[in-house]
Each structure stands twice: as C-alpha cells, then as structure tokens.
C-alpha cells in the first residue's frame, strides 16, 4: 500500500482578501500553506506529496522545497492535475487536501487512511449541531432539520485508481471530491473531523487560526555561550564571514565563536547537549572544519523533530575587530546556512569597556539565543 497526498493550493483566496493569496500569508512562524504541507509530508504513512499551485506561484512554491504541479481554473481542475501527476508511482490510496486548512492533525489523517482499508472513499466531517434556518433578506422564513447533516472537511481519501477514473469522467464541477466519487458509484465513509481543521475562507479566520496556534504550539528557547582565544594570524571567521584582523582565533575547528554560540543555542532549545557532544574535539576529522557543518546539523536536528527556527539573536563581545561593517554579511551568511529569512536573524556586537579578557583583547566571546517553534 502506498499512500500519497495531493494538496490543492492554486486558488486566489478572494474571499480572504489581503495582498497575497491566503496560503502565502504569514501565520505564526510560517506561511499558512506550510502547515498542512509539513503535516502531510511528515506523516509516516504518506510517501508522496504533490502541491498544486497557480502558475504565477510555481517558482516560489518550488523554492520552499515542495514538489509542485500547476493547477487549473477550478478546484476540481487542480485536483485532476495533482492526481495525474501521481500516475505511475504505484500509489494505492490518495488524500486530497485544501492547503487553506492549516490545523490538520495526524489523528484526522490516520482515521481517513484506516477507513480506506474497508471503503473506497473516506472523508472527515463534523455533524451540524446548530439549528438550521432558511432565510432571505435578513428574515427567517423556514427551518431545516439538521439530522444527518455534516460539514465536510479535507483530506478526502480514496482508492487512487478509482478517484482518478472518477475525475476523468466527471463532466462538470463539484463541491468536493466526495461528490465526484459518489457520482461514480463509490461509497464514502465519514470519519471524525476536527474543529481545528477549519478552512481559512474569510478575513476573520486568520485570527482564529492564530489563536489555535498559540494554544497548541511548543515554544523552546535556548542559549549558547562560547569563547575563543586569539593567536597569531591575519583574520577571524565570525558568523560565517572572513573578517581581516591583526590576530586569528584559536580553535579545533575554524573557531567561529558566533556560529558556535548560535549552534549551542539551538541544541539547548532541543535539550540536545552542545557542539562538543555531537562533534567531539577529540575527533580529528573536525580539525579546521567549517563551523557551518555544526550549525547545519543543529538546524537539521530541529527540523527532524518538527521544529521551525523562529529567530536567533547573537551578540559578539570584543574590542576589535569592529563587527558593525560586517553584520549584514553575517546575517546573510547565517540566513543561507540555516534556511530562514534574514529578518529573523540578528547579529550585533558590544565591547566590554576594556574590562576582562575581551577588554584586554585576549579573545572574543559570544552569546546567542534561539527560539524554536513546533505546532
Ligand atoms: N482553481 C483553484 C481553486 C481553489 N483551489 C484550492 O482549493 C482549496 C479550497 O478552495 P477555497 O477555499 O475556495 O480557496 P480559494 O479558491 O483560494 O478561495 P476563494 O474562493 O475565496 O477565492 C484551496 O486550498 C484552494 O487553493 C485550487 O487549488 N485551484
Ligand atoms: C472541499 C471543501 O473544503 C469541503 O468542505 C470545500 O468544498 C472547498 O471549499 P470551497 O469554498 O467550496 O471552494
């Protein structure tokens, strides 16, 4: 059994308003669209994820590391393109999901996948609990029995060959993929939906999604501190940038004191020890190593545990060299290594007013803080 996911993201989000389509707006530390893509990509039972995007967004979405195809004029057209892109990959079950539902949970996915063992289709939904009225011009002029009525969600799951064939032959638009499946004679089971798995549709839904993140998120703060002594030399490496100086920094690796503090801050937030634990100084293979190896390892470890690095703040403590003229290049270098936006990285410096070992220019110290977020 191979399960894949098609995430439709080619809509323009006209009802949600804003300068960019809703899936590209910020929500906490990420974009709206990144949440459900991450949830499905990290799900142990999902082998392939295809994101269907508008042609104008293709380069941007690919830049996020997603596997993408372009969508069509309607949601159903986009679904068809996503399903066709999975042909030949041995997919047996497929989950079709709206990118605009960032609150998707593993439990919702698990229930849909499990139900596909006994049904051709399965989709999450919530029973309607409020009374239903029929109204016109602001006046109630009838009621509608709510028994047996459900609010449909995604991901809607199907046997892959059956839903591909159903979509290929469905000659008209449809509210969702369950409608297409049923029109082809497939039975669709109802699985448990989640109030958190709502679709961002209108402007006020962003505030609801933000509240949801605040209650469910795991926020970690870590700090790092490092010191390297000066020795003979003509430059130092600070936060990935070569800075000319009258001395060099002494160390087993390239002695990038700033990058070491940031790396330790990330390990600290993860409760994963420090650089020395992952890259022992007794191990000769790290002699003279570029410190970006250590930083990348810490970032990858955070990612593998489901965390996003929200920001890092690093202070270099030295009389000389002057850091200010190089700070922008340092933030640029760290941004490239860590894969996070430059405006989430701060590099600054202070002297110690000629006090202590930094004041006597015997070495450079650095402190750093990192915030990690898991939703
Ligand atoms: N041509 C389209 C239209 C919609 N969708 C996707 O279908 C999902 C559900 O649609 P909806 O909430 O209606 O999104 P939009 O079409 O973007 O919103 P609006 O109708 O307000 O423009 C969204 O993930 C949307 O990106 C799509 O992939 N291709
Ligand atoms: C598929 C769907 O999310 C099920 O609730 C919904 O029908 C798609 O959203 P739209 O607003 O109808 O485009």
Automatic annotation (TrEMBL):
UniProt-annotated stretches for the region 2-C-methyl-D-erythritol 4-phosphate cytidylyltransferase: 1-219
Chain sites annotated for binding 4-CDP-2-C-methyl-D-erythritol 2-phosphate: 226-228, 252-253, 274-276, 350-353, 357, 360
2-C-methyl-D-erythritol 2,4-cyclodiphosphate synthase domain location: 219-372
Enzyme Commission (EC) number: 2.7.7.60, 4.6.1.12
Gene Ontology MF terms in the entry: 2-C-methyl-D-erythritol 2,4-cyclodiphosphate synthase activity; 2-C-methyl-D-erythritol 4-phosphate cytidylyltransferase activity
Keywords: Isoprene biosynthesis, Lyase, Metal-binding, Multifunctional enzyme, Nucleotidyltransferase, Transferase
Residues that bind a divalent metal cation: 226, 228, 260
Site note Positions MEP for the nucleophilic attack, residues: 146, 199
Cofactor entry: a divalent metal cation
Pathway: Isoprenoid biosynthesis; isopentenyl diphosphate biosynthesis via DXP pathway; isopentenyl diphosphate from 1-deoxy-D-xylulose 5-phosphate: step 4/6; Isoprenoid biosynthesis; isopentenyl diphosphate biosynthesis via DXP pathway; isopentenyl diphosphate from 1-deoxy-D-xylulose 5-phosphate: step 2/6
Superkingdom of source: Bacteria
Segments of this protein annotated with the region 2-C-methyl-D-erythritol 2,4-cyclodiphosphate synthase: 220-375
NCBIfam families named among the record's database cross-references: ispD (TIGR00453), ispF (TIGR00151), PRK09382.1 (NF006899)
Similarity section: In the C-terminal section; belongs to the IspF family.
Record-given protein name: Bifunctional enzyme IspD/IspF
Gene: ispDF
């Amino acid at each position: 059994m191979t399960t894949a996911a098609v995430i439709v993201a080619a809509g323009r989000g006209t009802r949600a308003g804003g300068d960019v389509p809703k899936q590209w707006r910020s929500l906490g530390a990420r974009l709206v669209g990144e949440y459900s893509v991450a949830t499905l990509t990290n799900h142990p039972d999902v082998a392939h994820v295809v994101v269907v995007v508008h042609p104008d967004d293709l380069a941007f979405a690919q830049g996020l590391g997603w596997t993408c195809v372009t969508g069509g004029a309607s949601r159903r057209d986009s679904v068809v393109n996503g399903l066709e892109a999975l042909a030949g990959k041995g997919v047996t079950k497929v989950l079709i999901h709206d990118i605009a539902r960032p609150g998707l949970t593993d439990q919702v996915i698990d229930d849909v996948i499990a139900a596909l063992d006994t049904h051709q289709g399965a989709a999450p939904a919530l029973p309607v609990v409020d009374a239903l009225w029929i109204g016109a011009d602001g006046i109630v002029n009838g009621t509608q029995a709510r028994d047996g009525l459900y609010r449909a969600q995604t991901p809607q799951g199907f046997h892959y060959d059956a839903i591909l064939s159903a979509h290929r032959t469905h000659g008209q638009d449809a509210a969702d993929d369950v409608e297409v499946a049923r029109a082809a004679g497939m039975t669709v089971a109802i699985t448990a939906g989640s109030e958190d798995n709502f679709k961002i549709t209108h402007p006020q839904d962003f505030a609801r999604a933000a509240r949801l993140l605040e209650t469910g998120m795991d926020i970690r703060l870590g700090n790092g501190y490092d010191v390297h002594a000066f020795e003979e030399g003509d430059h130092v490496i600070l936060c990935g940038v070569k800075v000319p100086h009258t001395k060099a920094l002494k160390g087993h690796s390239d002695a990038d004191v700033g990058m070491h503090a940031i790396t330790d801050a990330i390990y600290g937030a993860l409760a994963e020890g420090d650089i020395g634990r992952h890259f022992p100084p007794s191990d000769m293979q790290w002699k003279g190593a570029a410190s970006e190896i250590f930083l990348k390892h810490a970032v990858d470890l955070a990612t593998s545990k489901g965390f996003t690095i929200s920001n890092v703040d690093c202070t270099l403590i030295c009389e000389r060299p002057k850091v200010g003229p190089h700070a922008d290049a340092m933030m640029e270098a760290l941004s490239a290594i860590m894969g996070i936006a430059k405006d989430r990285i701060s590099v600054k410096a202070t002297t110690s007013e000629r006090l202590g070992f930094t004041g006597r220019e015997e070495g450079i110290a650095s402190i750093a803080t990192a915030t990690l977020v898991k939703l």
